[in-house]
Amino acid sequence: MKDIKTVSIHKIALVLLFALSTLSMSYAQGVTVVEHDGIQSLLSTYINHHKTHAMVKGYRVQIITTDDRRKMENALYKFRQLYPEIQSDWEHKVPYYQVKVGAFKDKLDYQGFLIEIKKDFPGAIPIVADIRKEELLSL
To answer: What's the CA dihedral at 139, 58, 79, 116 to 10 degrees?
Structure first.
């Protein structure tokens, strides 16, 4: 007797489980998403901005890192006198000042420049940086 009751209880539970899952599926199909009017416009603006101002991983050459601002300014001035056509900028990451120059897509692009620049800036090293596409140099 127990076995028949157990079997019938399992059948009833299985039927209930099936009915509930079918009911929940019908509710899930009825979900609608209401999007605010400005969301699509904002998303399009965001996508277009990043298409035109895309950043890529690349390399810059760091010519000096120092905690002395005057040394940093002298190195930057010297670089700009020697290489006026190459973009240069400095950054202050407390307590250090860093001068970073150039914008290269891959290692092959900066290696010749690095060899040349080490004559005037022996401590120059390549660093990985996020670079805007229009800044990239090919020397």
So the answer is: -50
* pTM, two decimal places: 0.60
Handedness of CA 80, 82, 86, 89 (dihedral sign): negative
Mean pLDDT of 86-92: 94
Q: What are phi and psi of 21, to 5 degrees?
A: -70, -35
Using DSSP, state whether 45 is helix, strand or coil. Answer: helix
d(CA 89, CA 84): 12
Cα 118 to Cα 97: distance, rounded to the nearest angstrom:
19
**79 compared with 2, residue with greater pLDDT:** 79
pLDDT at 139: 46
Q: What is the DSSP letter of 137?
A: B
Burial 54-74 (b: 16+ CB within 10 A, else e): eeeebbbbbbbbbeeeeebee
CA angle 42, 43, 46 (to 5 degrees): 85
